[in-house]
Design brief:
Chain lengths: 667, 178, 159
């Protein structure tokens, strides 16, 4: 009964979406404001219905109603409650339903918080958002219905992929989806602006908080996913440049570019055409990601079960949405004339450089991800494009970005002086160069790339600090430093934290790549092995039983110079439903690096194959990502950034930059 | 963006869409790795016979002047069980000699497997370490190769030969040689 | 059918007998060289992992082969060639530069160049905007005279 209710709610949601996608355009055509105002209730209605459907599916999972095919195929009574719930989105159908739920949630949020937007524009936005909903709802109802019944119902379900039975992965997909789908708002705003033929600074004011919110979730989701790979896959790797990882990285790059370009639109009324295009591209990358995961055109560890019919459906939908919006762009873009002028050396130019490099990188990741597919389609040759290519591209394109990042925030709008910025940055440059020479000279990991990476990280972090010092006039008037520091706008704090976070990530990547120590050993209980000055002693290996798995657990104690550092427990689990082994690495994070142990195969005779690592400063990768997320949140919490804020701002000057230029926020 | 430039994103997307559509509908499995052995001489090997561990068979057994199928199988492999009937059909109804290579399998178990399901193979050799499999570019069992009379590999069937369509494809490749 | 096949693959992976030895080489220099090579070789039965990062049986076999060859004194190129001979360029995570991949390896520079050209050309176009018509000039003069204290000049979106 509950499942039927969910199914019914989906159909009602589809009808509301069809109404929501058509009525506003008609109302605007007829200039009927009462009819335009209906777009709000349509948005609320869609959200309510999607929530009902999602709730119905979740309920079926929680009570293990195996008469629902989707539950039987993906759940099991012995699963802990958390994984019964996360099982809802651990499969193709359920994850699509989550996607629709978030899509309608964002539409409802626009309807609720967007009272400050002109009614006409708001109903255009909601109509575009409803159009997206139609596509996904039809996709669910016609090809991927999660509410199909199974008769007779089995006594037990098939269970969830054990790799997904992990707290990190329980929350990774929803976060990523909120990020993906959050970009739909920028998309809908862009398409609505194209239909209206006008982009104003107010438009950018509106789009930025939504993009920032989506970006925060994307950043968090990607970081969570890589952290999961780090401790769960058991190989010490954290990013594999897998097509599906790339599919989440491309929207992130585009969203990051969009965040920066919309600043220029908001403050300087320039880059409008490009920002609109970027809004479309960012969400298109999100759609591409869902397509790649579900169509089976590429193979990936993350892919859902492949079904050509679904693939063709979603490809058609993509063609309509992306092709349609880009065609609209090609038609209307000439109307979006730039008006803000600026010099070659200026904050604007720095932000353009940021956009050039980020979007080039996104395009190159796309090329690398799809190259094997295109090459095979054209000429039948199979090749692999793996991490070495992407690392090459990242080095070529991200190094200049980091160098430029030091300068950007110090340049003034319209016309800046590079010499002034350079003066401030001298210490950063010195630290960078010294770091480089120290690494080369010391030869510890003595390779150019390590020195280069560390120099970049040092440059970036010191330049962020110098920039704060400059803003607070630390060297000119140190007495008032603290008051000035506290008074810095939160958006500035957010920017600095996020930029500093990037520096920490670069540091973490470079140091852990260069100086990871590793031992591949065959050990019996009582044996010790030395890794980077740490003594790993295998104390014992014992079988243990979890709720739905059995495991062997290896207990290590790690000592340094005879003093106990930490105990480590590494597990090798075998799940029963479905039968599958997984590894749980034993990790102990120290400030200077992670101790990392993995237990491998039993080789007989009380001997086990064991991998032991010391990964210096690898946690910098996630600490840095955390700083970025925190920076995003702080920036979002800034009063002028708040989602409802433009309502208040609008009263003063609608088309002027609402914040005086002197009080600039981020850059 | 004005002029022709503004159409560039749209064109890229349309091209990609066409590529996606093609690769989704041409029925190829993205997991399948194409064999690079096709039209090259079969790899050299020297492996013991399943029937008699003292006798070593070499790749010379492939050069009979007639097309021969080479089938990698193992008793622990479920899809091999599924395709066994097709091998019987190919061997006895269609009259194509098949050389079996028992891949990473205990010879006793291989023998038991053939005893219970029937033996479609003209000869069976034992690749205990799986090295012959790697030389042939095998990624998993079962895989089946068609070798012509001169010992040149002409066709590879990836995965189990199940159903008339699959048998038909193998037969078509054989007939192409004649 | 596809599900069935996926299931078979699972069974296959689970049931594969472990025969590979997968023990490190005695000589640490050779072992390090072998490990570097393993990072570049794609696992054939798992997706997008190197053989260094895989538990699959075939990956272990290939690790053994890499170690063997390195121990016999083969150069990295020879080891790669050995594997390419059997599995094609597909096994290399780092695709070789040839006429099929020049676009790939060139893409960071090609795309960057293209984008830069687009940016520069559109900036030029913006900079050399059309001269004002006499009508516009008159209006501008009027505005400049009328509005020394007004900062409310509206954005010129629609003109």
């Amino acid at each position: 009964m509950i499942a039927e209710l969910g199914h019914f709610a989906l159909i009602v949601a589809l009808m509301l979406a069809i109404l929501g996608a058509t009525v506003p355009h008609y109302a605007i055509f007829r200039r009927d404001t009462r009819l335009m105002a209906l777009s709000d209730p349509f948005a609320y209605g869609q959200f309510f219905m999607a929530a009902t459907a999602f709730g119905a599916l979740m309920y079926s999972y929680i009570i293990s109603d195996f008469s629902v095919l989707n539950v039987a195929a993906n759940s099991h009574t012995s699963k802990p409650l958390l994984y019964k719930i996360s099982g809802v989105w651990g499969n193709h159908e359920g994850s699509l339903l989550l996607w629709v739920l978030i899509l309608t949630l964002f539409a409802a949020a626009v309807a609720w918080r967007g009272k400050g937007l002109p009614l006409r524009f708001r109903s255009r936005v909601l109509a575009v958002q409803s159009t997206l909903c139609i596509g996904f709802l039809m996709f669910i109802i016609f090809t991927s219905n999660p509410f199909l019944r199974l008769d007779p119902a089995p006594f037990e379900g098939n269970g969830l992929n054990p790799l997904l039975q992990d707290p990190g992965l329980a929350f990774h997909p929803p976060m990523l989806y909120i990020g993906y789908v959050g970009l739909s708002i920028a998309f809908s705003f862009a398409v609505a602006a194209l239909i209206e033929g006008e982009v104003t600074p107010l438009w950018a004011r509106w789009v930025r908080p939504w993009t920032l919110a989506a970006w925060i979730f994307l950043t968090g989701g990607i970081a969570l996913g890589s952290w999961w790979a780090y401790y769960e896959l058991g190989w010490g790797g954290w990013w594999f440049w897998d097509p599906v990882e790339n599919a989440s990285f491309m929207p992130w790059l585009a969203a990051t570019a969009l965040l920066h370009s919309s600043i220029v639109v908001e403050k300087r009324d320039a880059l409008k055409s490009w920002t609109i295009l970027l809004s479309i591209i960012a969400f298109s990358f999100s759609l591409l990601g869902t397509f790649l995961v579900r169509s089976g055109v590429l193979t990936s560890v993350h892919a859902f079960a492949v079904d050509p019919e679904r693939g063709v459906f979603i490809l058609g939908f993509l063609a309509i949405v992306i092709g349609g919006s880009l065609a609209l762009y090609a038609w209307r873009a000439p109307r979006l004339t730039p008006s803000g002028m600026f010099g070659v050396v200026s904050r604007e130019s720095a932000l353009i450089l940021n956009n050039v490099l980020l979007s080039t990188f996104a395009a190159v990741v796309l090329v690398g991800t799809l190259y094997p597919l295109v090459l095979e389609a054209i000429n039948g040759t199979q090749i692999t494009v793996g991490p070495p290519f992407f690392e090459f591209a990242a080095t070529v394109l991200m190094s200049p970005l980091i160098v430029a990042l030091g300068f950007g925030p110090l340049l003034a709008w319209k016309r800046g002086r590079i010499s002034r910025a350079a003066q401030v940055l001298i210490p950063a440059a010195i630290v960078g160069v010294v770091t480089f020479w120290l690494v080369i000279w010391d030869k510890a990991g003595g390779i150019m790339m390590t020195g280069f990476g560390l120099a970049l990280a040092a440059w970036l972090m010191v330049s962020v600090l110098m920039e704060i010092a400059e803003r607070t006039k630390l060297f000119k008037n140190p007495k008032k430093f603290l008051t000035r520091l506290v008074r810095l706008p939160r958006a500035t704090w957010g920017m600095s934290l996020a930029h500093f976070g990037l520096g920490v990530i670069v540091l973490g990547i470079t140091v852990s790549e260069a100086w990871t120590s590793e031992q591949l050993r065959v050990m019996s209980p009582g044996d010790t092995a030395e890794v980077a000055g740490f003594e790993f002693k295998l104390e014992g290996v014992e079988p243990i039983a979890g709720p739905n798995y059995t495991a062997v657990r290896a207990a290590f104690t790690v000592t340094r110079n005879g003093e106990l550092v930490a105990p480590l427990y590494a597990e090798d689990r075998v799940f029963s439903d479905p039968p599958m082994p997984t590894t749980e690495a034993g990790i102990y994070p120290l400030f200077r690096g992670d101790l990392y142990a993995v237990i491998g195969e039993y080789l007989g005779d009380n001997r086990w194959s064991v991998r032991l690592y010391f990964k210096p400063f690898i946690s910098g990768i996630w600490v840095g990502a955390g700083l970025m997320v925190l920076g995003g949140i702080i920036s979002l919490s800034d009063r002028s950034r708040r989602i409802g804020a433009p309502a208040g701002r609008r009263r003063s000057k609608p088309k002027q930059p609402a914040v005086p230029v002197g009080q600039t926020q981020e850059g | 963006m004005t002029g022709f430039k503004r159409f560039i994103p749209l064109l890229i997307v349309l091209l990609l869409g066409a590529v996606f559509f093609k690769s989704m509908t041409d029925g190829h499995n993205p997991k399948e790795i194409k064999s690079v052995r096709i039209d090259k001489p079969a790899p050299v090997f020297s492996l013991r016979l399943l029937a008699d561990e003292k006798i070593q068979a070499t790749d010379a057994i492939l050069k009979t002047g007639k097309p021969v199928l080479v089938n990698f199988f193992a008793s622990w492999c479920a899809p091999c069980r599924a395709e066994h009937e097709s091998l019987m059909t190919l061997a006895f109804d269609k009259g194509i000699p098949i050389i079996g290579i028992a891949y990473k399998d205990d010879p006793i178990k291989s023998q038991r497997f053939l005893d219970s399901l029937g033996n479609p193979f003209a000869q069976v050799v034992v690749d205990r370490a799986g090295r012959a499999g790697i030389d042939w570019g095998v990624t998993g069992v079962p895989e089946t190769f068609l070798v012509d009379g001169d010992g040149i590999v002409r066709y590879r069937h990836w995965g189990p030969i199940v159903g008339d369509a699959a048998i038909g494809r193998v037969m078509a490749a054989v007939e192409d040689l004649e | 059918m596809k599900h069935l096949f996926a299931f078979f693959l699972l069974v296959l992976a689970a049931a594969l007998p472990a025969t590979a030895s997968d023990t490190p080489l005695k000589d640490p220099v050779q072992e390090a060289a072998a490990r570097e090579l393993m990072k570049e070789i794609r696992c054939l039965v798992c997706q997008n992992q190197s053989i260094e990062d895989s538990n699959a049986d075939l990956a272990k076999d290939l690790r053994d082969i890499v170690r063997e060859q390195v121990a016999l004194g083969a150069t990295p190129d020879q080891v790669r060639a050995y594997l390419v001979d059997r599995y094609g360029d597909w096994v290399l995570l780092k695709p070789p530069v040839n006429r099929l991949t020049w676009f790939l390896w060139g893409s960071p520079f090609l795309v960057l160049g293209g984008v830069l050209i687009a940016v520069v050309s559109s900036r030029k176009k913006a900079a050399v905007s059309e001269p004002l018509t006499s009508e516009e000039q008159a209006r501008l003069d009027e505005l400049l005279r009328a509005a020394p204290e007004s900062d409310q000049i509206k954005g010129s979106e629609k003109q």
